[in-house]
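look at this fold:
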Amino acid sequence: MLFDFDGVIVNSMPGHARAWVRIFAEKGLDITEEDVYLHEGRPTVDVAHVFLSRHGLPAEKQHCRALAAHKQAYYLSKPGGVVIFPEIVPIIESVVGRGIAAAVVTGSNDEVVRRTLPKKLRSFFSAFVTADDIKKGKPDPEPWLKAAEKLAVQPKACLVVENAPLGIQAARAAGMRALAITTTLQPEHLQGAEAVARNFDELARLIESRLNGEH
C-alpha cells in the first residue's frame, strides 16, 4: 500500500503553501495557497518552473533550482509548523499489521522526510520514494511505479492514498487504484480517485473495504 506524504501523513501543506506564497511575493507575484495545493506532488523544482513560466519569468533550470532551494530553506526555518495527522497512525499500523507492505511516495526530498517523520513511524514503511529518487515527478507515474518496484509488487496490486489531483493522476497512469482524502482540497478537485474520504474515519473504512475485497 502506498501513501503520499504531505497532506496524508503530515499536516505540512499549509506550511509549504505559505512558503511558496511568501517566496513569490518577494518577486512581486501574487499566488494563492490553493494554487499551490493544485500543484502538490510535483517536485519542488517543477513547482518553481510552473509558477515562473506562468508569470513570464525566466524558468531555466538554474533559476528553478535557486528558487526551490530558497523556498525549502524558508519552509525548514519555521519550526513547529508540521505535525503528523494522528488519525493516520492507526491506519498505517492496521495495514502493516495485516502483513501488507507500505511505502511513502512524495515530491519532497529526503531531507524533508527525515526531518519531519519520527523514527518510530518511519519503521512502519518498507520503502520510500522521494524527489531525490526519480527523474520525473507527479503527474508522471514514475514515483508510484518506483515504489511498486521497491516493494516487489505489481502496480495493479497497489492501493494509493492521496490528497492531490496530480498524485491521483499519476497513480492512475501507473495502473493503480487511488483513494483520496480532503485534507487540502474539496472533493470536486479529487474526482480522479475511485472514492473520496472527507475525514480519516471515512478513509479507514474505505481502506478496510478495499483490503477485504469488497470493492
In short: The chain is about 45% helix and 10% strand. Residues 68 and 100 are 35 Å apart (CA to CA). The two ends are 16 Å apart (CA to CA).
